[in-house]
Amino acid sequence: MTSLHYINSKLSDAIGILTVDEGDARTRLAKALPKIRILSTSSFPVELQKTLIG
Questions:
Q1: What is the pTM (predicted TM-score) of this model?
Q2: Which of the residues 2, 9, 27, 51 has the least number of beta carbons within 10 Å of its own beta carbon?
């Protein structure tokens, strides 16, 4: 399991990119995706994994 600090860092970075970086939505999304893509469901605590899976 990945540390919650690491998960928070990646998600915070992605949110920052999506909300305040320059460029159109596609540009910002392309920049944010690598931050999110490295997080798999198994990276999260078990309690959150159930929510992520659906």
A1: 0.76
A2: 51
